[in-house]
From TrEMBL, chains A, B:
The species this protein was found in: Dichomitus squalens
Catalytic activity: Hydrolysis of terminal non-reducing N-acetyl-D-hexosamine residues in N-acetyl-beta-D-hexosaminides
Descriptive protein name: Beta-hexosaminidase
Family of this protein: Belongs to the glycosyl hydrolase 20 family.
Record-level GO BP terms: carbohydrate metabolic process; glycosaminoglycan metabolic process
An MF annotation (GO) of this entry: beta-N-acetylhexosaminidase activity
GO CC list: membrane
Length: 550, 550
């Protein structure tokens, strides 16, 4: 059934300009092939799920509307004569491998990590005979459709490729190919998130990590806990209602993306004090530099049984909103001075006879216990494993952010991990400091270029016996200096770099990659995503001619 | 008549949050004052120019449509009770000082540098009696209207200030408050340029420096020289027609902005070779690193009389398209190796008995002679004064870009100068290198923050006797890694930093400035300019609370 299982050992293939990420195995010719005016996509699946039918419709729409000219001088003008004699492709036939269980794309996308089936085989003959796309799952079909839509260009009303026949056998190297967005420092309307999911899907990303709340604002409306957004959102209009969340997870699921929500606790929670002042220690304490890594200070009183129970119940309610099997409780940047100076926390520690570390472990077991009861796997930031003495289930997913050097230590402790290292993958770095009167460079300068992300090695310093613990990785946008205004340009096409590292595998050559990254950036722009220009258009149309030795 | 002439000696005043740039003299109260539902602006000018009437209409539209809530917690909610008893302002009365010549804003904006009158006096009583705006010119009235529109906020349908009475006497420190945009590396549609002019006008900028062509593409359609864009534009749709130019200079003029176009010569001209291969030395020569600072190589054959005459005639034609008195011929980054290896240039030098430097001087005198005949003042980049032995008219405006340290040397040579230093004002720096296979940082990293630009001192190292030579300055967007997708976020609100330095004068305090910069950025967003977030909104609503010691 898993007929593609050998693929993971294949090296990346030399590629078609338009494909990002690069398929694991790819053969192309040099024959022009155009889409017939009555081109159609046939689905040979009994009772196809509606999101598969929708994906087929979207693919046909992209083929018609992308209208992307090839990135060569003159765009498609030099293809005119080849197009006159080109065969027409009338049909792409989709089918599932024999015996495959038919689930919706959405269901497949939300399966537990490591059990999702994304592999596919795509064959496009040069003679106009039927092209075929086969997979083990509807999710694999979606990945194949995404590839198919990237193969075609437009010139003078014709939609075509000049590289037929095309034969692709493909599967991802890692299941977690993610993007993190912080919607607390600054708010993003639902439409911005959906457009981001569109772009993620185009580069076959699988995981949206939604850092939905933080100390600055609480935009998530949680049934039974609506006071948190009522008091903590920036504005009554700047919230995600339960139906907004439903729309977002459905939109993501239909595009092959699972949504892991994160309610960062017990730090990064100052704004909970707007609704529940009694739950928060050192709320807006001054100077904030003593009590937090950034303003405002404020952390949940983790040693309080009342606060732990409140937090666990909140997580139970949040778990019901998000169908993913994974949910993050955060756990980064806990400030001990905040608790040292908080008389309520000190009283709680005294009365229970616990140290702060012991109380943190109890707090975490309480919240994680609630998640487990709700059928969820918890995720945490690396400090919970490396800096604290917290008892965690071995199931826990650990997000490595402080440094890429820390991944090995997490693997040593036998936890599954996701790479999100600030030294490679932080999209916000390099714009200087945002603290009002600090004119120094920011802690994570310089700017992390796409080239830097592209050189990342997921298995660096990790022993072969622990290799299986690496789930993948994600680029992250923290939004102290970002908002809807610069979302697209600060993320795209940069975040596509890690999408290829974790789909195709590491070791790609930046010079080879650049023309393909131009191509996917141009295609994103055609689809309404404001991906930036990587070079002057002169260079984009002349691959290699803006290299140093050219 | 110049009743505001003493103002230039005044120190910046403590300010209303909403004003950027800070007026030279400002007094405010703490009384709420709202606009009456029938508020109107009366123009006491006989036969007001149509662009003044348009500016009045735009101002009324901004007042109604900005709908900006005050940047405080709760936005305007705490103003509700004050608004219940607030007086209503029914009229703003505009008038010119006695004996002032009535010209259109557009005409005033295009007067020679140093002769434009931008000063104004604005008085808004707290009791609802008529507010008055007086100036020496329609351009001064425009600046005052711009200030007026920034004073008002919206809450619950009411448009109001809480700082009446307001009394402002204002005038700029420097005439040149500019922004440079490169439309050659990547193309920008006319609408993007117009939106940029809107934002410039909001912060009282006076000069758009349009670097319209370069080696990568030639988007300007010049009557009589249409072959240049025909062969050199990226696409037939990616051009500025003469009517586009007319629209842009008119749009700018009506907003108090003069447009200085730049056709960079004799370097940065490779693309002219697409139409006239015989005019260009070392066109696309390889390796480009030998022949140019960036790909593609190619420079006008400056020693050829034919090429010099062609270029001069082209400038004559360009001069007719742009009503400004200033026009830039560029002159930066001339590569000598390109000419050393060009047999045609060597033959021309031999036959005329000139050195390359002598030929450059003749070439420049030819092009500048054409400009002078067309009534224009030439502008050049600093190398033409500091690195070459070129005879230039003392009228010439010199743009300093390589380093802020070079301004003093230009002033020593008694040339008027514009500060555009890469170490303070280059908006493109800090995103890494764009050369395809160069993973090093770019030459002008790191990112130039608004705080950095804000610390610029226009008179640093310049002697008092040469102080008058400083015309002002400009921030610059070179577009190797930019396009329409990131134009607004990469420029705004950063470029407002220099607008205040050159209007109000240097020495502003960044902590004091930040809340006002937030305010103008929020207002830009309300007007459709995608200025970025400078901080989490939590900070924007709590001035000072995200400072280090808060």
């Amino acid at each position: 059934m898993r007929f593609l299982s050998l693929l993971l050992a294949l090296a990346p293939a030399a590629g078609v300009f338009g494909l990002w990420p690069q398929p694991r195995s790819l053969e192309t010719g040099s024959t022009a092939l155009k889409l017939a005016s009555d081109f159609d996509i046939h689905v040979s699946v009994q009772h196809p799920p509606s999101d598969l039918s929708d994906a087929v419709s979207r693919t046909k729409s992209f083929l018609q509307n992308d209208k992307l000219g090839r990135l060569v001088v003159g765009r498609g003008s030099s293809d005119s004569s080849a197009l006159k004699t080109a065969k027409s492709l009338k049909t792409l036939q989709l089918s599932l491998s024999k015996g495959a269980t038919v689930r919706s794309i959405t269901e497949e996308s939300r399966l537990a990590l490591g059990t999702r089936s994304e592999e596919y085989i795509l064959d496009i003959p040069a003679d106009g005979s039927t092209a075929t796309l086969t997979a083990n799952s509807t999710l694999g079909l979606l990945r194949g459709l995404t590839t198919f839509s990237q193969l075609f260009y437009e010139w003078s009303g014709q939609i075509y490729t000049v590289e037929a026949p095309i034969s692709i056998t493909d599967a991802p190297a890692y299941p977690w190919r993610g993007l993190m967005l912080d919607t607390s420092r600054n708010f993003f309307p639902v439409a911005d998130i959906m457009r981001t999911l569109d772009a993620m899907s185009l580069v076959k990303m699988s995981q949206f990590h939604w850092h939905v709340t933080d100390s600055q604002s609480f935009p998530l409306v949680i049934p039974g806990f609506t006071e948190l957004a009522n008091a903590g959102a920036y504005d009554p209009s700047m919230v995600y209602s339960p139906s907004d969340v439903q729309d977002i997870v459905d939109y993501a699921g239909a595009r092959g993306i699972d949504v892991m929500v994160e309610i960062d606790t017990p730090g990064h929670t100052a704004i909970i004090g707007a609704a529940h002042p009694e739950y928060v220690a050192c709320a807006e304490a001054s100077p904030w530099t003593t009590f937090a890594n950034e303003p405002p200070a404020g952390q949940l009183r983790l040693a309080s049984a009342t606060v732990a129970n409140f937090t666990a119940k909140m997580f139970t309610a949040v778990a019901k909103m998000f169908p993913s099997t994974v949910l993050s409780t955060g756990g980064d940047e806990l400030n001990t001075e905040c608790y040292a100076q908080d008389s309520e926390t000190q009283a709680d520690l005294t009365s229970t006879g616990r140290t702060l570390e012991q109380a943190l472990s109890v707090f975490t077991q309480t919240t994680h216990g609630a998640l487990k009861a709700a059928g969820k796997t918890p995720a945490v930031w690396e400090e919970m494993v490396l800096d604290h003495n917290v008892t965690l289930s071995n199931e826990t997913v650990v997000l490595v952010w402080i440094s890429s050097m820390n991944a090995a230590a997490v693997a040593e402790k036998n936890f599954r991990l996701v790479h999100a290292p600030s030294d490679y993958f932080y999209l916000d770095c390099g714009a200087g400091e945002w603290i009002g009167d600090d004119v120094a460079n920011s802690w994570c300068d310089p700017f992390k270029t796409w080239q830097k992300a592209y050189t990342f090695d997921p298995q660096a310093n990790i022993s072969a016996s622990q290799a299986h613990l690496v789930l993948g990785g994600e680029q992250a946008l923290w939004t102290e200096q970002s908002g809807p205004e610069n979302l697209d340009p600060i993320v795209w096409p940069r975040a596509a770099a890690s999408a290829e590292v974790f789909w195709t595998g590491p070791g790609g050559n930046g010079s080879e990659a650049l023309p393909r990254l131009h191509d996917v950036a141009f295609r994103m722009r055609q689809r309404g995503v404001k991906a930036i220009q990587l070079q002057p258009m002169w260079c984009a149309l002349r691959p290699g001619q803006c290299n140093l030795d050219s």
